Amino acid sequence: MTPIPEMKHELLYHERIVRSVANATREDARQLMRLAGEIPLRTEVETFPLVDANRALAALKHSQIRGAGVLVVGRG
Questions:
Q1: Cβ contacts of residue 58 below 8 Å, gap of 6+?
Q2: 73: closest CA among 45, 46, 50?
Q3: How confident is the model over 17-55, as pLDDT tens digits?
Q4: DSSP codes joined into one string, 27-40
Q5: How many angstroms separate the CA atoms of 10 and 39, rounded?
Q6: What would the mean pLDDT of 43-71 be, rounded to a whole number?
Q7: Which residues contact 16 (CB under 8 A, 6 or more apart)?
Q8: What is the dihedral of CA 47, 53, 54, 59, to 10 degrees?
Q9: Beta-bridge partners for 47
Q10: Whole-angstrom Cα distance, residue 56 to residue 74?
């Protein structure tokens, strides 16, 4: 097989930041889930109606979303 030529990441996705994702085994996930059951986890989610997708993207761009931003269909 011929190697895939190198390409700048921003040409593909127009991202300014590349965040890494750790590789984990199934046992790592099992241990994480056991630990998660033992400690109080609090998630933070901010929902946006789909019609406000541009506002959600602007908030994301300016780091104004704490936790996860979710687009919701059927609200608005």
A1: 64
A2: 50
A3: 656 667 888 899 899 899 988 988 888 999 999 999 999
A4: HHHHHHHHHHHHS-
A5: 38
A6: 93
A7: 10
A8: 20
A9: 70
A10: 16
φ and ψ of 57, to 5 deg: -65, -40
Nearest CA among 70, 74, 72 for reference residue 57: 70
Domain segments of the chain as ranges? 9-72
Q: Would you say 10 and 16 are in contact if contact means Cβ atoms under 8 Å apart?
A: yes
Cβ neighbour number for residue 60 with a 10 Å cutoff? 13
Q: What string of DSSP letters covers 23-70? A: ---HHHHHHHHHHHHHS-----EEEEEGGGHHHHHHHHHTT---SEEE
pTM confidence score? 0.48
